[in-house]
Write a structure and sequence with these properties.
This protein is mainly alpha-helical. It is about 80% helix and about 0% strand. The termini are far apart.
């Protein structure tokens, strides 16, 4: 019963984060909401795996969490550098 309540609370949290993602005044608010949605989805996967008696869902939740982190880092790099393929400053280009 307790895990069903946790699953419902996670669904409410995802709904609130979706609202923040839609109404967020800045891109960073929307990014934080997307990261929150990813984290809650990962937790929901783990809880559903426990409820259904399928422990392999925990492996899927861990992979989803790693993809969530990598996606957040990629979006932040894009907003900082404007290009995902830009390697940054090199020594040859910084010396006159």
């Amino acid at each position: 019963m307790m895990f069903a309540a946790v699953a419902c609370a996670l669904l409410v949290t995802i709904a609130l984060a979706l609202t923040r993602a839609a109404l967020g005044p800045t891109v960073f608010d929307r990014l934080q909401a997307a990261n929150t949605i990813g984290t809650c989805a990962m937790l929901l996967l783990a809880v559903m795996g426990f409820l259904t008696g399928r422990p392999d869902f925990l492996d899927l939740a861990l992979v989803y969490g790693l993809l969530n982190i990598l996606g957040t880092i990629a979006v932040l790099k894009y907003f900082r550098h404007g290009d995902l393929g830009d390697p940054g400053e090199t020594e040859e280009s910084s010396t006159p």
